[in-house]
Amino acid sequence: MKPAVHSPITQDVLDAMARTSNPRLREIMEDLVLSLHDFALRTKLSRPELDIALNFLNEVGRATNERHNEAVLLSDVLGLSSLLCDGDPDHAEEAEALLGPFWRLHSPRTENGGNICRSETLGPKLEVLGQVIGEERQPIAGVEVDVWQASPIGLYENQDEQQADMNLRGKFTTDDEGRFWFSSVLPAGYPVPTHGPVGGLIKAQQRHPFRPAHLHFLLWKPGYETRVSQVFVNGDQYIDSDIVFGVTPGLIGNYERQGNGRYRLERTFAIHQGEAYLPKPPID
Ligand code: BEZ
Ligand code: FE
Question: How far apart are CA 245 and CA 259, in angstroms?
Fold first, then answer.
């Protein structure tokens, strides 16, 4: 339900925007103005508080560069990104996850069976065996599967000078049975970046900044809806308190410890016919 018009100024703004030719832009902006005005009046927002909020947004912009995206982080920490995830949260094959601020577009194409450690990366070894299926559970060949993860010390390569460019990132293509497989290391949980204004907000709210350990997947094939997923490490200490509200039951994986100390993850992803899209990469 839309908020009511409480002030003549609200109505004036709506009237001023009424000729917007793009209908979706008009719909979104009308609702945004109604919601913002309603919010400001309900909370009795003061001028100094508005200044703080506007300065916060400026700081978000200033903290963003080609290696870090504070705006995506803000959306994530406020739960907005997770709120907008489609899919079935309880179903392993269908569950959807947020993209996060660390996806890079040009991760290295890697043969199935390859290792995504591109520089020495100490930690428990991990084997991942994936399969992509369609609506009739038929295997889908030729799906591009983008994978990215944090290291066993909880850092993405773009945050860590010790890691090679594109370490722990790879792009695989499913074979005729819809399968892809690769070697890596077990990811660790990590704190989201807290050096910027979003970090200040997290601190003011007395929240911890951690995400439970996970792998990221982005599945892309023309003619199919893109699936963005994560698979969380079962038993992680932050599984019930992810800072970005991204864990659903369907996203928890079974990382099985083998006799040789290695871990193994098997996972099936379902994709549906529709329009493929590639998100705008949050960083270069
Ligand atoms: C990530 O999983 O990469 C992530 C998601 C949200 C905020 C920070 C990191
Ligand atoms: Fe992550």
Answer: 33
Q: Tell me phi and psi for residue 87, to 5 degrees.
A: 85, 180
Of ligand 1's listed atoms, the one at least distance from the Cα of 73 is: 7
The 10s digit of each residue's pLDDT in 93-120 is: 999 999 999 999 999 999 999 999 999 9
pTM of the model: 0.95
- Per-residue pLDDT tens for 19-76? 999 999 999 999 999 999 999 999 999 999 999 999 999 999 999 999 999 999 999 9
CB contact set of 220 (below 8 Å; sequence gap of 6+): 143, 144, 146, 226, 276, 278
How many residues belong to the chain?
Answer: 284
**Distances 186 to 92, 168, 201 between C-alpha atoms, Å:** 20, 10, 30
Q: How far does the centroid of ligand 1 lie from the alpha carbon of residue 100, in Å?
A: 4
Helix 197-204 and helix 70-77, axial crossing angle in degrees, nearest 10: 20
Per-residue buried b or exposed e for 243-279, using 16+ beta carbons within 10 Å of the residue's own CB: bbbbbbebbbbebeeeeeeebebebebbbeeeebeee
Residues whose beta carbon lies within 6 Å of some atom of ligand 1: 73, 76, 100-102, 192, 211, 244
Cα separation, 132 vs 121, whole angstroms: 28
Ligand closest to CA 154: 2
- Check: CB of residue 188 under 8 Å from CB of residue 154: yes
Backbone angles phi, psi at 261, to 5 degrees: 85, -5
Name the residue type at position 259: G
Ligand nearest to the CA of 102: 1
CA 125 to CA 105: how far, in whole Å?
Answer: 25
